[in-house]
Amino acid sequence: MVNPRRTANNDRTAALNPTEKYADGDTVMDVDLFKSIGMYQLLRPVECGLNSRRCRMAALVVVALTLGLQSMQVCRLYLARHDFQMFANMGVLVINGLMCLLKGYMVVANADRMCATLEATRYAFTGCGGRDPSELRRCRATLSAILRTFVGLSFGTLFVWVLIPWFMASEYDDMPYVWAVVYVVESIILTVNVFCWTSFDSYLVTMCFVFHALFRTMSTGYETLGRRRSSARKLSARQHFDTVAMISKASIADDNYDDLTNHILDNKNIIEQYNAFFDVVRPMVLIQIADGSYSIITLIFLTSLVSDTSISTFG
């Protein structure tokens, strides 16, 4: 005989259409935020009325063209070869820019795999989360606040970067056309970089929060395994004394066994999604760690260089 609860748990994804699956109130993912930065359209273009292949190809072309523009900054490294301070500063900018473009490429290249792992953000992904989504709701509130602050600061920084040259016009009066081209090129590079890093990092942070909440939810589910049904049986027995004899321990044990089986299946699904997520982000995370180390070392060097220059000047 087929267990109705087990069938329901195994078919949770199939039973929901895409719109219901990612309804804003039924998932930890901040759908509105993902749509505002273009991440949702890239991962699920069909739901947004877009052609999947064309949408992702367009994103890949934008990343490739920006990479071509970014390569122009490598020439500036050559021009700065006699000014070590400027060379180090330009090196940080170029490497960080290339890392942002790599994030954009990773999102486009792994869009289908990322989309599959985002299934774990739904409350109904596990039986425990579907019955008691309180932990997932708290995760959603915290995650939404963090991501919206991060995205707001990122685009605020972009706005400042784009606006600053307008207050330095006197420095560009000698070659206005040349500096206009440089300004447009760098504005395009910065804009694409911001979209790339906010998209990848928003996905990364979302999945980290989701897995933490899922494991906490599963832990609570294991702790209460067997208590919920047995307590309900006892309450029913106290209220209906004439049916006490009809409640069998075998029935209770069978229910608990089914719950345990569903918990194990849910845990297996979480681990599978976790492994898929880790395979997607691991290369980029390792590169980002190396880039962060390089940036910190370079900034320390530049700070010490400026300090030595100041001391020698005042000395």
From TrEMBL:
Organism the protein comes from: Schizaphis graminum (Green bug aphid)
Compartments reported by the entry: Membrane
Protein name as it appears in the record: Gustatory receptor
Keyword Metal-binding carried by entry: no
Biological process annotations from GO: signal transduction
Residue ranges crossing the lipid bilayer per the database entry: 59-80, 86-108, 145-168, 188-215
Membrane topology reported for the UniProt record: Multi-pass membrane protein
Main location per the UniProt record: membrane
GO cellular component annotations of the record: membrane
Molecular function GO terms recorded: odorant binding; olfactory receptor activity
Pfam name, any one: 7tm_6
Keywords associated with the record: Membrane, Olfaction, Receptor, Sensory transduction, Transducer, Transmembrane, Transmembrane helix
Domain of life: Eukaryota
